[in-house]
């Protein structure tokens, strides 16, 4: 198996932040996206970060952080809504692939969060299984309201923070990795307009993986 390029949370974070800065500045390198890289990864992978993001088509994690094939293990659902399969996938990235950094990435103008905020305000529920997405986001809407936040982007930030807490509390594998010092979990938000990311949560808070939120 290839060796992870960045074996510590701080090194992984710095690599992602450098890539995001290139993306923002419109000078991406598009690293590790050629045929030789593809062939080298045919039998194994060793990503340096796991990322749980929104399924929104505008939030393609590999582009936002300017990484290539085999560098990031990505799981995406609408509004970063979790279920057992999602959490199991994130556990795989951390426990089996050994990534030292797990990022939860929310973004402004999120359609799923907007639907949940609207549902809370009107009492109306969307049809189909979209209702399940909204139902899982409503606790973050309620918590945001309790903190005096009623706008979508503020609720996105609350949901990102809540998701980091949920993953730590629900997953024994992720919690053990954090508690043993093998993993840092970051909550980040992405701004669609300028492409920048911002740290809004970190677990554990006392490990220098990123600047304080």
TrEMBL record:
<dbReference type="GO" id="GO:0008270">
    <property type="term" value="F:zinc ion binding"/>
</dbReference>
<comment type="similarity">
    <text>Belongs to the beta-class carbonic anhydrase family.</text>
</comment>
<dbReference type="Pfam" id="PF00484">
    <property type="entry name" value="Pro_CA"/>
</dbReference>
<keyword id="KW-0479">Metal-binding</keyword>
<keyword id="KW-0456">Lyase</keyword>
<feature type="binding site">
    <location>
        <position position="110"/>
    </location>
    <ligand>
        <name>Zn(2+)</name>
    </ligand>
</feature>
<protein>
    <recommendedName>
        <fullName>carbonic anhydrase</fullName>
        <ecNumber>4.2.1.1</ecNumber>
    </recommendedName>
</protein>
<dbReference type="InterPro" id="IPR001765">
    <property type="entry name" value="Carbonic_anhydrase"/>
</dbReference>
<dbReference type="InterPro" id="IPR036874">
    <property type="entry name" value="Carbonic_anhydrase_sf"/>
</dbReference>
<dbReference type="GO" id="GO:0015976">
    <property type="term" value="P:carbon utilization"/>
</dbReference>
<keyword id="KW-0862">Zinc</keyword>
<dbReference type="GO" id="GO:0004089">
    <property type="term" value="F:carbonate dehydratase activity"/>
</dbReference>
<dbReference type="InterPro" id="IPR015892">
    <property type="entry name" value="Carbonic_anhydrase_CS"/>
</dbReference>
<feature type="binding site">
    <location>
        <position position="107"/>
    </location>
    <ligand>
        <name>Zn(2+)</name>
    </ligand>
</feature>
<feature type="binding site">
    <location>
        <position position="56"/>
    </location>
    <ligand>
        <name>Zn(2+)</name>
    </ligand>
</feature>
<comment type="function">
    <text>Catalyzes the reversible hydration of carbon dioxide to form bicarbonate.</text>
</comment>
<feature type="binding site">
    <location>
        <position position="54"/>
    </location>
    <ligand>
        <name>Zn(2+)</name>
    </ligand>
</feature>
């Amino acid at each position: 198996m290839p060796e992870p390029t960045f074996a510590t949370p701080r090194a992984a974070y710095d690599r992602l932040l450098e890539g995001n800065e290139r993306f923002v500045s419109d000078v991406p390198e598009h690293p590790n996206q050629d045929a030789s890289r593809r062939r080298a990864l045919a039998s194994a992978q060793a990503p340096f970060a796991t990322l749980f993001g929104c399924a929104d088509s505008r939030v393609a994690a590999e582009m936002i952080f300017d990484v290539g094939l085999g560098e990031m293990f990505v799981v995406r659902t609408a509004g970063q809504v979790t279920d057992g399969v999602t959490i199991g996938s994130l556990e795989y990235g951390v426990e089996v692939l050994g990534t030292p950094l797990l990022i939860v990435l929310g973004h402004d103008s999120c359609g799923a969060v907007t639907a949940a905020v609207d549902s809370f305000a009107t009492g109306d529920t969307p049809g189909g299984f979209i209702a399940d997405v909204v139902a899982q986001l409503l606790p973050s809407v309620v918590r945001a309201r309790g903190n005096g936040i009623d706008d979508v982007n503020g609720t996105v930030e609350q949901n990102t923070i809540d998701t980091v807490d949920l993953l730590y509390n629900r997953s024994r594998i992720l919690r053990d990795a954090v508690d043993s010092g093998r993993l840092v979990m970051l909550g980040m938000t992405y701004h669609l307009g300028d492409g920048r990311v911002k740290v809004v949560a970190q677990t554990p808070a006392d490990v220098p993986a990123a600047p304080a939120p």
